[in-house]
Amino acid sequence: MPLLTDKVAIVTGASSGIGRAIALKLAAEGASVVIADTVEPPIEGGESTANLIEQAGGTAIHLETDIAQWNAVDALVAATVARFGRLDVIVNNAAIYTSTNLLETSPEQWNRVIGVNLTGFFHCCKRAVMQMRTQAPVNDVRGRIINISSQHGMVACPGDLPYSVSKGGIVQMTRQIAVDHADDLIVCNAIAPGKIITGKPGVANDPDALDYSRRRTPWPRLGAPSDVAGAALFLASDMASYVTGINLMVDGGWMAG
């Protein structure tokens, strides 16, 4: 039997990249998936995530959402529950970066990155917990939160102050929610990807940066979005029945080296 039969999941930033892979994986395991993103077309090109899921026989809808806005997140969760009846899993993945150090970062850039990557996650976690607390437990769990952090929440991301600070905040937010809402039977974990190759343009795929990542990663290849999706599936499922408050590294051994 699929691992997520009859489950309902929201995945933010799921039009492209890691979020897209997670949404496809959860849907393939039986979940009804809400794709929450500011745009629907994938950066990689091709069909939208929701269309791919539907074509494979799954259930998915796309809801345009800017997680930096509380009202948008409130509407997202309300629409999800109105359509599917409950919310079992939320994967907070949407994120932006500026590739600027302290002196290069303008107040506007700082506010935008923190607004999406940290405040946006706060919005999504809070609204999810508000909903999950109203639900009857299933196998002793009312709901699961999965926050996509980063190895750069533990070590500095060279030349990208706002991004690193936001990811460090996500790691601590995850711990705090896990402890504060254990009595509510709400599970909260994070996943920290290492270098994952996606269709994202710009500095992330700079040849020198990729070469550094290959030399720095012990495993003899860099990561793929499906690697992160596998970890998300584990944390979204009943297999992770006594796992909460962790920051699961999916980095090919980067942080162990």
UniProtKB/TrEMBL annotation:
SUPFAM superfamilies: NAD(P)-binding Rossmann-fold domains. Transmembrane segments: none annotated. It holds the Pfam family adh_short_C2. PROSITE patterns: ADH_SHORT. InterPro entries: NAD(P)-bd_dom_sf, Sc_DH/Rdtase_CS, SDR_fam. GO terms for molecular function: oxidoreductase activity, acting on the CH-OH group of donors, NAD or NADP as acceptor. It comes from the Bacteria. PANTHER family: SHORT-CHAIN DEHYDROGENASE_REDUCTASE, SHORT-CHAIN DEHYDROGENASES/REDUCTASES FAMILY MEMBER. Belongs to the short-chain dehydrogenases/reductases (SDR) family. NCBIfam families: PRK07231.1 (NF005559). This is NAD(P)-dependent dehydrogenase, short-chain alcohol dehydrogenase family. It comes from Mesorhizobium qingshengii.
